[in-house]
Design brief:
Helix content is 36%, strand content 25%. By secondary structure, it is α+β, with helices and mostly antiparallel strands. The protein has a five-stranded antiparallel sheet with strand order 7-6-8-16-17. A three-stranded antiparallel sheet has the order 1-3-4. Strands 2-14-10 form a three-stranded antiparallel sheet, with no helix packed on it.
């Protein structure tokens, strides 16, 4: 399998949009800032760059590892001394870039953040065409533990396809049994999560990120129209209740929640560290070319500016 020049160009455009959004995050993440307004601003940056959000901006704080995005009426703010993970995705015609960074507002948390950076560097060095993906997990775990922290064992990076954030293969963050080789032409998001807790996450209530998982009839004309509209707009990618409410108001939101009850739509539960440990995350997207891995987001370079 080989990426065409057109596909590569679309990936590069998506990667640039993600990098710009995370650059904005470095400017706007501060104590007391509205989480809702931050998410809206970052998603706006992606659209101004000629891309579309591949999923709602995730702004996960302290012990929350992933899948927290502000919903309708969210009044939360960035708390004092927070460890803030910002995870954004963009796509151009379905070709996705996905990246994340962590900002510590308390200097005492910097060692955790540095450990996550070290783990990402290890993953980037390990992931090449032909490598067994479990070797990447071994590299991530070694980097995290050598810094005095633990990787989160039940979160992983992932193969991505067109309009598919998770396309089958995963990139472990811990030592594991062989789980497949990375092949030229594939695109991976590598995302080490590092914690001072026990090293795994659990689900909580209150998700605001949705994804259409079934186009099967819901037995109601309004619900079936909603299914068609969600497919037309998002093509199976995750979306926010904020977006649905903005376009259709309370009625559209009630239809969305009814579709979730009928299991036509999946709701992503926020994931928290099981012992309430703090979590840091960094992530990049790699295109595997025949002879090398091309990093299209380069988050660690962004932090050096």
């Amino acid at each position: 399998m080989k990426l065409t020049e057109e596909e590569k160009e679309k990936y590069l455009r998506a990667g640039e949009a993600v990098k710009c959004a995370l650059g904005k995050a470095l400017d706007v993440i501060e104590e007391g800032a509205s989480v809702y307004h931050i998410a809206e601003e970052l998603e706006g940056v992606i659209m101004k760059r000629g891309a579309s959000p591949a999923f709602p901006a995730n702004i996960s704080i302290n012990n929350v590892a992933a899948h927290y995005s502000p919903g309708v009426g969210d009044e939360s703010v960035i708390p004092h001394g927070a460890v803030v993970k910002v995870d954004v995705g963009a796509h151009v015609d379905g070709y996705i870039a996905d990246a994340a960074l962590t900002i510590a507002l308390d200097p005492r948390r910097e060692p955790l953040v540095e450990a996550a950076k070290r783990a990402l560097r290890a993953a980037l060095a390990a992931l090449k065409p032909g490598v067994e993906l479990s070797e990447v997990g071994s590299s991530v775990e070694s980097a995290a533990r050598s810094a005095g922290f633990k990787p989160i064992s039940n979160l992983s990076g992932h193969l991505m396809g067109r309009y598919a954030l998770h396309a089958g293969k995963h990139v472990p963050n811990v030592r594991s049994e062989p789980c497949g080789k990375a092949l030229a032409g594939e695109v991976y998001a590598v995302e080490p999560f590092v914690t001072d807790g026990v090293g795994y996450v659990v689900e909580t209530e209150g998700g605001t990120i949705y994804r259409l998982v079934s186009a099967k009839s819901a037995g109601d004309a309004a619900l079936n129209r909603a299914i068609k509209e969600l497919w037309s707009k998002y093509r199976g990618l995750p979306f926010s209740e904020r977006w649905v409410y903005r376009e259709g108001g309370g009625l559209a939101l009630s239809l969305l929640r009814e579709l979730a009850k009928l299991r036509r739509v999946y709701v992503y539960p926020p994931l928290v560290e099981a012992s309430n440990g703090f979590v840091a995350q960094f992530e990049d997207t790699l295109l595997l070319l025949p002879d090398r891995a091309l990093n299209i987001t380069q988050i660690l370079e962004l932090l050096r500016k």
